[in-house]
Each structure stands twice: as structure tokens, then as C-alpha cells.
Amino acid sequence: MISIQNIHFRYKNKPVFSGLSLDLQPGHIYGLLGKNGTGKSTLLRLINGLLFPKEGKLNVLGYTPAKRQPDFLKQVFLVPEEFYLPNISINEFLTANTGFYPLFNAEQFNSYLGEFAIPRDQHLQEMSYGQKKKLLISFGLACNTPILLMDEPTNGLDIVSKSQFRKVMAGAVSEEKCILISTHQVKDLENLIDRITIIDEGGILFDQTVGSITNRLHFKISFDSEEVRSALYKETSLKGNAIILLNDEGEEGRLDLEMLYKAIISNKEAVQKAFK
Ligand SMILES: Nc1ncnc2c1ncn2[C@@H]1O[C@H](COP(=O)(O)OP(=O)(O)OP(=O)(O)O)[C@@H](O)[C@H]1O
């Protein structure tokens, strides 16, 4: 569905990707993680054709995004991290934008707005940042594009809205849809994403499904000093040692995404070895 092969990209004097390859399939919610400035937003903009790779192949739904063909653009929606919305009503916003997305469903849109408790008759300029973000998330979901890209969607959302976000996203997953979410708020997405992609130093550092991670790694709290010594990663707290072990015994367990991320950033060789 999205095939990225050996792409190179740089801003004027800032190299960002030097040979990044990635394959994304429908039916998944991908979590795109990485340190500040590693290129997550840049990758989303390359996928929807707002930026053009300097080298390499980028194919999305059979199209080259950089050509910006209308038949491609109607199939992809990006909820950006930063945005400007004009001083118009929600109805005017819909009139101006729904024509670009033939599968837009007004009933769904109204139901998402209701879920997020956004008054339907509000003007966009009267809305807070979080409310505007929820409007864009609702619109993006209701466009029913096979590709949905979201850049830090939970930034600015309050605690209740974050759980509403997880609920609406869980309902939006389908076999035909590929959702790619860039985030630092890993706790917000922990039970939502089913594949984790981490970018670093111009390429892919880690790319695994949640199932494969919990098959190979075991996350637990331990008081056993021997076990703690053998851990791939550990964090000591008053509640005990939170550790990541190789899952040699095939234990059933839950993924702690924040710990996994820290383990990969601090000890990438050991974690990568577990997947070889
Ligand atoms: N318009 C631009 N012109 C020049 N450099 C840019 C531009 N936009 C981004 N960059 C640089 O490109 C790199 C990647 O930026 P990008 O915004 O894609 O990173 P990110 O991973 O999304 O970061 P964050 O987690 O902070 O949102 C950064 O070093 C950034 O400074």
C-alpha cells in the first residue's frame, strides 16, 4: 500500500533521510516514533506528496505522491501537528473541503464530533487548539481515505479526549485502511497501534509488530537480582525493577511501549539482536 525504497531527503542544508526503506500494509495502525528532529513529520509529508524525495522510490496506492494527482490526493488525509483554520463555521468548513474526499460521510463526522463534545454550530476561530484538533481528527476519519496520516494527534487533547480518541480510532480500523500515527505520547497509543516503527539517524531503527515484540521480549517487574542483572533494559523504582528480558520461556505479556522505546534508544544492539 505504501512502499518506500531507499529514499533520500534533505532540506536546503539539513539531511534528513539517507536511504530509508519501509513497507506499510492496510489493516494496521502504525506508530511512528523517534527523537525530536529525526524526520517523522517529514516522512508523513513525503507520503502525502507535500515534500518530494531527492532519490529513491516512493509508491503510495500505485501513485507517485510527488505528482499530486487528484486521484491520489482524494485517497490520503493528513492531520498535521500545526495548522491554521480560517474564521468560518463548521458547515462552511465542510462545504469548502468535502468535495475533495468522495467517501466523506457526514453522519460519521457528526458522530465523532458528538463523541468529542464539540458543539456543531461553533465557529472555528472560537475553538481552542484542542477543539480544533478534534475537529480535524473527526474530519480526517470521516473522509474514509484508505490512508490516514496523523502527526501528534493527541497533543493538546485533555485526558478524557485522549480516551475518546483511542475509542474512535479503534472503531476506525479496517482491513482496507492504513493508519500511520507519529507520536511522542506513547502511552496514549499503547493499546491502539499494532506495529511500531522507530526512525533514527536517517533510516529505520526498529520496525516490528506488537505480537512479535511480546513473543521475543518479556516486560515485567522483578525483585530477583540475578534476573535484573540479565535484563536487556532496567528501570529501578520504589515498586521494584521494571525490566525487559528475552522471552525464552514464551511467557504471555503486555508491551510497555515507553520502556521499549527507551531500551532501543539506549541499547539498540541488544534489542535488535533479539529479533534476528
Ligand atoms: N522547513 C524546513 N526547513 C529546514 N529544515 C527543516 C524544515 N522542517 C524540518 N526541518 C529539519 O528537518 C529535521 C526533521 O524535522 P521533522 O519536523 O520532520 O522532525 P520530527 O521527527 O517530526 O520532529 P519532532 O519530534 O520534534 O516533531 C529537523 O532537524 C528539522 O530541524
From TrEMBL:
It comes from Flavihumibacter fluminis. It comes from the Bacteria. This is ATP-binding cassette domain-containing protein. The keyword Nucleotide-binding applies. GO terms for molecular function: ATP binding. Residues 2-226 form the ABC transporter domain. Signal peptide: none annotated. CDD domains: ABC_DR_subfamily_A (cd03230). SMART domains: AAA.
